[in-house]
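Box 3.1 A note on notation
Throughout this textbook, protein chains are presented in two layers. The first layer is the amino acid sequence; the second is a token string describing backbone geometry. Keep the layers aligned when reading.
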Amino acid sequence: MKNTWKGILGCFLMAALLCGCGKSEDEKEVALITDGGTVDTASLDKEAWDGIARYCKEEKLTYGNYVPDKQNTKGFEKAIKEAAENGAKVIVCAGDEFSEAVGTMQGEYKKVKFLLLDGVPVDEEGKEYIRKNTHAVLFSEQQAGFLAGYAAVLEGYTSLGYLGGEKSEQNIQYGAGFIQGAEYAAKEKGLGAGTVNIRYKYEGSDELNPGVMADANAWYRGGCQVIFACGQPMQTAVQKSAETLGGAVIGSNYNQSSVSDSVVISAVKRVQEITYQQVGAAVEGDFKGGEKESLGTGHDGVGLTMAYTTMTQFNQESYNAIYSQMADGKIKVSGKEISSDPSQAGVELVTVQVEE
């Protein structure tokens, strides 16, 4: 009986979305709210947009994107309201900056299904609050960071850097994974203690400032071979430094290879594919409303951009081997802050130099 009703509800929603009666030119059945940027430049928004477009073209649904006039909660809420009143049945937002806006609007538009990627809705007091019409999808940054650190050391880099913005949960997880991945590769290669060194720093802000490039310049000039940069402003500054000084960069969040030739590989969240799947679930009646889930290698939620890498020692075979071990649960990665005491995560060979 449960499956029967599930099928009926799915068919009902699909029929409602596919029905063309009374549509206006402005009506968009599936909508993406951007963070203020466009969907035609490399970003999480573009990845989400590509996933939406692929699904909607296949199912012949109308879709569109809404760019807020202000990059703040009020601006996001206004854009969500516009999308809902234009007939959106599914609204997608990508990034934790939408947490408060979705937290509010999910209650105002209870018939709309909200998909929040890389964030969790919160109430006015900042507490997590997920209604039954909202699904929150997070990504395992520690696993993505692990793959980045593993690839770097297997490629032959021994002088590494990690630059994050704010000391946020996301940046902590990326950095913790990066250290553990480097350690795992060092053990595999039989390297001695102290052979691999990681310079490690949180810049204290996700805003672009001269200090980021100054740090990257100093690190590259000091012998750092590759820097894992987390957060778009960090990546922009580090890429410019690397281009000038001949250094290498590992990108984060999405494929950075088209942005700079200095990027040797990127540790990514597979936002496009997950969006495609989750929009389909919302339309077809299998939506995980009221739930929060974190997707890692076991769900193909994170990975490395092997199709765009310039690495040669770390190849597809190497990647497949380590990825399958992680997906099978044979390799566990801690997401806790370990930079000040890596030994708590079993790190013995890699030296971590934390900088203030």
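The chain has two domains: 2-139, 141-269+302-354. Residues 1-22 have pLDDT under 50 and may be disordered.
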